[in-house]
Amino acid sequence: MSIVKSRRWRSDEFLDGFQSLPLPLGDDPDGDGLIEATLVRAPGNAATTNGAVLYVHGFTDYFFQADLAEFFTDRGYAFYAVDLRRCGRSLRDGDQPHFVTDLAFYDRELTAALDVIVEETGLEGTGADDASAQVIVAGHSTGGLITPLWLNRLRESDPERHRHIAGLVLNSPWLDLQGSALLRTGVVGGLIKGLGAIRARTVVPRELSGAYGDSLHVSRHGEWSYDLRCKPLSGFPVTFGWLAAVRAGQHRLHRGIDVGVPALVLRSDKTRFTDGYRTAVDTADCVLNVKQIAQWSAMIGRTVWAVAVPDARHDVFLSLETPRRIAYGEVQTWLNTVFGEGVQQ
User: Fold this and answer.
1) Of 276, 314, 311, the residue nearest 292 (C-alpha)
2) What is the 3 state secondary structure string of 279-307?
3) Between β-strands 19-27 and 10-11, what pairing exists: parallel, antiparallel or unpaired?
4) Strand-by-strand arrangement of the 304-309 sheet
5) Nearest CA to 11 among 36, 43, 37, 35?
6) Cα(139)–Cα(152) distance, integer angstroms
7) DSSP-assigned letter for residue 87
8) CATH number of the domain at 10-339, please?
9) DSSP assignment of 192-245, as one string?
10) What is the Cα–Cα distance from 285 to 287, expressed in whole angstroms?
11) Contact yes or no for 339/322 (Cβ under 8 A)
12) Using alpha carbons only, what angle is made at residue 69 by residues 330 and 5, rounded to the nearest 5 degrees?
């Protein structure tokens, strides 16, 4: 029986008024038995007039951004988010958080989520030219790498499903490996690939900075409340298998892909790397190099809007009030330009 036909939504454990749905994925290609992801839907989806949004989180992350959901539902979009396998709501006891050895494995839950959205929102009968009643995919950080690669494969292998995609919004996508240029050489790349194959679950030795988490969480210097089991302040350990999967995905994107729909790429206007919290990280990306995001954004597709948001954080929608307002304004401008002035504000 399909996920769509047998779905049983339940009250979400993290967000009041939201609901969640397990997405069974069958046998894990990484050898951990039966696995599942989790689809979340926002309240107000019955008022859908403009289509739907599917949001995909990043590394050491899960969906908790209720304000982002409200922005889209207020504009007539049904809002959904997926917690990927071994992430957030889908993380089980004994799991290695976020572990995967091929980003293409995520196609299974993303396609399952799309099928649910299309069936629930009545998009099955829409035509390919009816962009006002289709799905906008949104991805943050690693999710901003996973989603364009998925859409490129979907366009090539499953055009019937791809026709339901209207646009792509990327929020500080992880398009290259930050740090010293040495890390991006063929020698280091070959080492990462080799260790990813033979020691996939071995943790990469590195020092973890809690600067970003400290800037966000209400218990430290931020204004956002979220579950630290799903999004710890200093992040989850990085494994060689996962890092090799990310580098393979980045290399594929660098050769050029085509998501097949208009894309908006948001990023901060500056990067500030630091070992610990400083007030400077409140107005900069302290996780990724924004110059790399700017460099590679054009490789996503044929129609890409790239916008630097002054003083934004790594997650531009978790920035301080002024840059956050600017970021949402850029999304509104993009919606109006791509889909017409009929999108309500």
Assistant:
1) 314
2) HHHHHCECCCCHHHHHHHHHHCCCCEEEE
3) antiparallel
4) 10-11, 19-27, 34-41, 77-83, 51-56, 134-140, 165-171, 263-268, 304-309
5) 43
6) 14
7) S
8) 3.40.50.1820
9) HHHHHHHSTTSBPP-PPP-HHHHHHBTTTT-SB---TTTS-TT-PPPBHHHHHH
10) 6
11) no
12) 130
Which residue matches tokens 């002035």? Answer: 341
Tell me the C-alpha to C-alpha distance, in Å, between residue 272 and each of 19, 183, 269, 279, 325: 37, 19, 10, 10, 21
Q: ∠ CA 175-324-283 to the nearest 5 degrees?
A: 70
Query: DSSP readout, 237-283?
Result: PPBHHHHHHHHHHHHHHHT----SS-EEEEEES-B---SS--GGGGG
DSSP classification of residue 342:
T
* Domain residue extents for the chain: 10-339
Per-residue tens of pLDDT for the chain, all 345 residues: 344 456 799 999 999 999 999 999 999 999 999 999 999 999 977 667 789 999 999 999 999 999 999 999 999 999 999 999 999 999 999 999 999 999 999 999 999 999 999 999 887 655 445 554 599 999 999 999 999 999 999 999 999 999 999 999 999 999 999 866 555 566 567 778 787 788 899 999 887 789 999 999 999 999 999 999 999 999 999 999 999 999 999 999 999 999 999 999 999 999 999 999 999 999 999 999 999 999 999 999 999 999 999 999 999 999 999 999 999 999 999 999 999 854 555
Q: Please tell me the pTM assigned to this model.
A: 0.93
Helix, strand or coil, per DSSP, at residue 136: strand
Phi, psi for residue 140 in degrees, rounded to 5 = -115, 135
In sign, the C-alpha dihedral spanning 267, 80, 27, 149 is: negative
The pair of three-digit structure tokens given for residue 2, joined into one six-digit string: 């399909």
